[in-house]
Amino acid sequence: MTRRGGLNLQAQQQRSLDAQAELQQAVQAAYASGTHEIPLDAIDATGDWNPRGSAGDEPYSEPALAGLMAAIQEYGQLQPILLRPHPDQRGPHRYQLVAGWRRFHSRRLLGDATVLASVFTFRDDQLDALSTLENTQREELNQFEVVRGVFRTLAGQLNVAPEQLPSLMSRVLKTGEDPHDLQDRLKVLTSASLSTFNTKYARVLRLRPEEIRAVYARNLPPTVALELVRLGERAERSEFLTTAMHEAWSTRTARERVNEVLRPEQARPAVHEVAARVTRQLKPARLGKLTGHQQAKVHALLTQLEDLLSR
């Protein structure tokens, strides 16, 4: 019974992962289909899958959206909202808002007549999950931006390149000496500890420009980009970036694919394993139990090995 229950749980987890991958692929397909300036009055924004729907209009008031509105005014709308053709073609709206409520309402409050959007035929069963995914990705991007901002700020305060910060942090952690007051400076900027920042977030500094662009365009989750950093300068890194965007990789998929590349390098060569086993057997007590013939044979083999290694 326990085994059957475990298998059922594994099957459920796999179905969940498959559904998430399918949803991410649908989102990428929507973005790949292109963007259009769609009239706001052609969009129905009343869907009950809105993740903030229970909060009424408060999340979409002008004070709540002031920061986003300012950013749109300065830089334009960088990320399209997601729409689908309205299921009720006889109604007053051509499209249904699927994700991007804050951007939609920001454009409305700015007095714009249109909003940048991508259109895709999302299914009904994908709508709730899609809203959650969109919200999660925005939170991940916010955290990503915070981490990069902290590194930039620290680098500016210390007048060093951001890439130098991990070595400075490591020195503080190893020696306990903190001549630059890194720990105090970090406490002002974030609640994360110096150890966490050095071990968990330092990979942000090794992202390539194309990976950063993919993250900000939301073609790649920040966590996937950070997994690719582990590949260093290997040729697979560029290939994996393209594949990850095309196939909408999850963090787990990225980690598994990167591990497949790194595993041969991480594994010890077979000769190391044999040498370790033999060394454990070369004890006086163990050798003393051998017959004279066996000892002579071991001596001959060790002499050959010594000669080989000394060349």
From TrEMBL:
<protein>
    <submittedName>
        <fullName>Chromosome partitioning protein ParB</fullName>
    </submittedName>
</protein>
<dbReference type="Pfam" id="PF02195">
    <property type="entry name" value="ParB_N"/>
</dbReference>
<dbReference type="InterPro" id="IPR004437">
    <property type="entry name" value="ParB/RepB/Spo0J"/>
</dbReference>
<feature type="domain" description="ParB-like N-terminal">
    <location>
        <begin position="36"/>
        <end position="136"/>
    </location>
</feature>
<dbReference type="InterPro" id="IPR036086">
    <property type="entry name" value="ParB/Sulfiredoxin_sf"/>
</dbReference>
<dbReference type="InterPro" id="IPR050336">
    <property type="entry name" value="Chromosome_partition/occlusion"/>
</dbReference>
<dbReference type="InterPro" id="IPR003115">
    <property type="entry name" value="ParB_N"/>
</dbReference>
<comment type="similarity">
    <text>Belongs to the ParB family.</text>
</comment>
